[in-house]
Amino acid sequence: GQQVMQIPQYQHVQEGEDFTTYCNSSTTLSNIQWYKQRPGGHPVFLIQLVKSGEVKKQKRLTFQFGEAKKNSSLHITATQTTDVGTYFCAGPVDTGGFKTIFGAGTRLFVKA
Amino acid sequence: DSGVTQTPKHLITATGQRVTLRCSPRSGDLSVYWYQQSLDQGLQFLIQYYNGEERAKGNILERFSAQQFPDLHSELNLSSLELGDSALYFCASSRAGSTDTQYFGPGTRLTVL
User: Quick check: A46 and A61 in contact, CB under 8 A?
Assistant: First the structure.
Protein backbone atom coordinates (compact mmCIF):
# COMPACT_ATOMS: atom_id res chain seq x y z
CA GLY A 1 0.00 0.00 0.00
CA GLN A 2 0.92 3.62 -0.07
CA GLN A 3 3.56 4.41 2.47
CA VAL A 4 5.74 7.15 3.77
CA MET A 5 9.21 5.77 4.30
CA GLN A 6 11.86 7.36 6.42
CA ILE A 7 15.59 6.69 6.76
CA PRO A 8 17.72 6.15 8.67
CA GLN A 9 15.96 4.48 11.57
CA TYR A 10 18.65 5.59 14.01
CA GLN A 11 21.49 8.07 13.90
CA HIS A 12 24.22 8.57 16.46
CA VAL A 13 26.21 11.79 16.16
CA GLN A 14 28.77 13.67 18.15
CA GLU A 15 27.60 17.05 19.35
CA GLY A 16 28.45 19.60 16.69
CA GLU A 17 28.07 17.19 13.79
CA ASP A 18 25.34 17.59 11.21
CA PHE A 19 22.35 15.28 10.86
CA THR A 20 19.95 14.54 8.03
CA THR A 21 16.82 12.40 7.85
CA TYR A 22 15.07 11.55 4.61
CA CYS A 23 11.43 10.89 3.86
CA ASN A 24 10.10 9.26 0.70
CA SER A 25 6.60 8.62 -0.54
CA SER A 26 5.49 6.32 -3.33
CA THR A 27 2.95 8.92 -4.39
CA THR A 28 2.86 12.68 -4.76
CA LEU A 29 2.00 14.45 -1.54
CA SER A 30 0.02 17.66 -1.30
CA ASN A 31 2.15 18.60 1.68
CA ILE A 32 4.68 17.17 4.10
CA GLN A 33 4.77 17.77 7.80
CA TRP A 34 7.61 17.25 10.25
CA TYR A 35 7.22 16.45 13.92
CA LYS A 36 9.67 15.96 16.78
CA GLN A 37 9.10 13.68 19.72
CA ARG A 38 11.42 14.07 22.67
CA PRO A 39 12.09 10.93 24.75
CA GLY A 40 9.07 10.40 26.98
CA GLY A 41 7.12 13.12 25.23
CA HIS A 42 4.54 13.49 22.53
CA PRO A 43 5.02 14.48 18.88
CA VAL A 44 5.23 18.21 18.38
CA PHE A 45 4.62 19.88 15.04
CA LEU A 46 7.70 21.53 13.56
CA ILE A 47 6.77 22.66 10.07
CA GLN A 48 4.68 22.06 6.97
CA LEU A 49 5.94 22.29 3.40
CA VAL A 50 3.48 22.69 0.56
CA LYS A 51 5.24 23.88 -2.59
CA SER A 52 7.40 21.87 -4.93
CA GLY A 53 11.07 22.52 -4.18
CA GLU A 54 10.24 24.50 -1.05
CA VAL A 55 12.98 25.11 1.48
CA LYS A 56 12.30 26.42 4.96
CA LYS A 57 14.66 27.14 7.81
CA GLN A 58 14.19 27.23 11.53
CA LYS A 59 17.46 28.28 13.15
CA ARG A 60 19.73 25.25 12.67
CA LEU A 61 17.00 23.16 11.00
CA THR A 62 16.54 23.15 7.22
CA PHE A 63 13.55 21.46 5.65
CA GLN A 64 13.23 20.64 1.95
CA PHE A 65 10.38 19.38 -0.16
CA GLY A 66 11.39 17.67 -3.39
CA GLU A 67 10.55 18.97 -6.84
CA ALA A 68 8.26 16.00 -7.48
CA LYS A 69 6.68 16.37 -4.02
CA LYS A 70 7.53 12.77 -3.25
CA ASN A 71 10.44 13.27 -0.92
CA SER A 72 11.59 15.56 1.83
CA SER A 73 14.53 16.01 4.14
CA LEU A 74 15.32 17.56 7.46
CA HIS A 75 18.87 18.71 8.05
CA ILE A 76 20.21 19.86 11.40
CA THR A 77 23.45 21.81 11.40
CA ALA A 78 25.79 21.48 14.35
CA THR A 79 23.63 19.25 16.50
CA GLN A 80 23.16 19.96 20.17
CA THR A 81 22.08 17.65 22.96
CA THR A 82 18.70 19.38 22.92
CA ASP A 83 18.13 17.95 19.44
CA VAL A 84 17.79 14.40 20.74
CA GLY A 85 14.52 12.72 19.97
CA THR A 86 12.66 11.10 17.14
CA TYR A 87 11.87 13.07 14.01
CA PHE A 88 8.80 12.02 12.04
CA CYS A 89 7.67 13.08 8.63
CA ALA A 90 4.01 12.78 7.75
CA GLY A 91 2.05 13.19 4.59
CA PRO A 92 -1.60 12.94 3.50
CA VAL A 93 -2.17 9.80 1.49
CA ASP A 94 -5.25 9.18 -0.59
CA THR A 95 -6.71 5.82 0.38
CA GLY A 96 -10.21 6.54 -0.82
CA GLY A 97 -10.15 9.48 1.55
CA PHE A 98 -7.10 11.34 2.72
CA LYS A 99 -5.39 10.30 5.89
CA THR A 100 -2.06 11.42 7.22
CA ILE A 101 0.52 8.66 7.26
CA PHE A 102 3.55 9.01 9.49
CA GLY A 103 6.98 7.71 8.60
CA ALA A 104 8.58 5.31 11.07
CA GLY A 105 10.76 8.13 12.38
CA THR A 106 14.47 8.69 12.78
CA ARG A 107 15.74 8.53 16.29
CA LEU A 108 18.62 10.93 16.88
CA PHE A 109 21.17 10.37 19.61
CA VAL A 110 23.64 13.16 20.33
CA LYS A 111 26.78 12.47 22.33
CA ALA A 112 28.22 15.41 24.24
CA ASP B 1 1.13 22.66 25.97
CA SER B 2 -0.69 21.68 22.77
CA GLY B 3 -4.16 22.32 24.14
CA VAL B 4 -5.15 18.68 23.67
CA THR B 5 -5.90 16.85 26.88
CA GLN B 6 -5.95 13.12 27.47
CA THR B 7 -7.02 11.12 30.47
CA PRO B 8 -5.93 9.08 32.21
CA LYS B 9 -2.20 9.57 31.97
CA HIS B 10 -1.44 6.01 33.00
CA LEU B 11 -3.60 2.92 33.04
CA ILE B 12 -2.69 -0.52 34.33
CA THR B 13 -5.10 -3.35 33.78
CA ALA B 14 -5.27 -7.08 33.23
CA THR B 15 -5.73 -9.18 30.12
CA GLY B 16 -9.32 -9.58 29.05
CA GLN B 17 -10.41 -6.28 30.55
CA ARG B 18 -11.91 -3.25 28.84
CA VAL B 19 -10.73 0.35 29.17
CA THR B 20 -11.78 3.74 27.88
CA LEU B 21 -9.35 6.48 26.97
CA ARG B 22 -10.59 10.04 26.72
CA CYS B 23 -9.45 12.97 24.62
CA SER B 24 -10.48 16.61 24.48
CA PRO B 25 -9.32 18.41 21.34
CA ARG B 26 -8.02 21.96 21.11
CA SER B 27 -10.70 24.59 21.16
CA GLY B 28 -12.08 25.00 17.66
CA ASP B 29 -10.63 21.78 16.26
CA LEU B 30 -13.13 19.50 14.59
CA SER B 31 -10.97 16.48 13.82
CA VAL B 32 -9.68 13.98 16.35
CA TYR B 33 -7.16 11.24 15.57
CA TRP B 34 -6.05 8.26 17.59
CA TYR B 35 -2.61 6.70 17.33
CA GLN B 36 -0.92 3.74 18.97
CA GLN B 37 2.80 3.82 19.69
CA SER B 38 4.42 0.68 21.00
CA LEU B 39 7.79 0.83 22.74
CA ASP B 40 10.29 2.64 20.54
CA GLN B 41 8.04 2.24 17.52
CA GLY B 42 6.44 4.63 15.12
CA LEU B 43 2.95 6.05 15.22
CA GLN B 44 0.28 3.68 14.03
CA PHE B 45 -2.81 5.51 12.88
CA LEU B 46 -5.96 3.98 14.30
CA ILE B 47 -8.90 6.19 13.40
CA GLN B 48 -10.02 9.74 12.67
CA TYR B 49 -13.27 11.49 13.48
CA TYR B 50 -14.44 14.75 12.02
CA ASN B 51 -17.26 16.66 13.65
CA GLY B 52 -18.73 13.54 15.16
CA GLU B 53 -18.39 11.24 12.18
CA GLU B 54 -15.80 8.64 11.34
CA ARG B 55 -13.57 10.05 8.58
CA ALA B 56 -10.72 7.58 8.12
CA LYS B 57 -9.73 4.24 9.48
CA GLY B 58 -6.27 2.78 9.88
CA ASN B 59 -5.04 -0.44 11.42
CA ILE B 60 -7.61 -0.51 14.18
CA LEU B 61 -8.44 -3.90 15.63
CA GLU B 62 -12.05 -5.04 15.84
CA ARG B 63 -11.66 -5.15 19.63
CA PHE B 64 -11.11 -1.39 19.54
CA SER B 65 -13.74 1.22 18.87
CA ALA B 66 -14.00 4.96 19.12
CA GLN B 67 -16.50 7.75 18.95
CA GLN B 68 -16.62 11.51 18.93
CA PHE B 69 -19.35 13.22 20.90
CA PRO B 70 -21.33 16.39 20.11
CA ASP B 71 -18.99 18.43 22.30
CA LEU B 72 -16.17 17.03 20.09
CA HIS B 73 -14.38 15.10 22.79
CA SER B 74 -13.54 11.55 21.80
CA GLU B 75 -13.21 8.21 23.50
CA LEU B 76 -11.23 5.17 22.46
CA ASN B 77 -12.55 1.89 23.82
CA LEU B 78 -10.22 -1.09 24.02
CA SER B 79 -11.75 -4.43 24.94
CA SER B 80 -10.59 -8.02 25.51
CA LEU B 81 -7.18 -6.56 26.19
CA GLU B 82 -4.07 -8.55 25.37
CA LEU B 83 -0.48 -8.11 26.51
CA GLY B 84 0.40 -6.76 23.09
CA ASP B 85 -2.00 -3.87 23.51
CA SER B 86 0.39 -2.30 25.99
CA ALA B 87 1.46 0.95 24.36
CA LEU B 88 1.20 4.70 24.39
CA TYR B 89 -2.05 5.92 22.90
CA PHE B 90 -1.99 9.43 21.52
CA CYS B 91 -4.86 11.59 20.56
CA ALA B 92 -4.32 14.47 18.17
CA SER B 93 -6.61 17.15 16.86
CA SER B 94 -6.67 19.45 13.87
CA ARG B 95 -8.79 22.32 12.63
CA ALA B 96 -10.53 20.39 9.94
CA GLY B 97 -9.30 17.78 7.50
CA SER B 98 -6.57 15.22 7.37
CA THR B 99 -4.07 17.50 5.70
CA ASP B 100 -4.05 20.00 8.54
CA THR B 101 -1.39 20.22 11.20
CA GLN B 102 -2.06 17.82 14.03
CA TYR B 103 -1.60 18.77 17.67
CA PHE B 104 -0.89 15.86 19.95
CA GLY B 105 -1.98 15.29 23.48
CA PRO B 106 0.40 13.96 26.16
CA GLY B 107 -0.77 10.40 25.64
CA THR B 108 -2.13 7.62 27.80
CA ARG B 109 0.30 4.87 28.72
CA LEU B 110 -1.57 1.58 28.86
CA THR B 111 0.00 -1.40 30.56
CA VAL B 112 -1.73 -4.75 30.28
CA LEU B 113 -0.53 -7.34 32.77
Answer: yes
Residue B60 touches partner A, C-beta closer than 8 Å = no
From first to last of the 113 residues of chain B, give the pLDDT tens digit: 889 999 999 999 999 999 999 999 999 999 999 999 998 678 898 999 999 999 888 889 999 999 999 999 999 999 999 999 999 999 999 998 767 889 999 999 999 99
Dist CA A108 CA B70 (whole Å): 40
A 6-65: CB under 8 A from B: 30-31, 33, 35, 41-45, 48
Residue type, A13: V
DSSP lists the bridge partners of residue A74 as A21, A63
What are the phi and psi torsion angles at A87 (to 5°)?
A: -105, 125
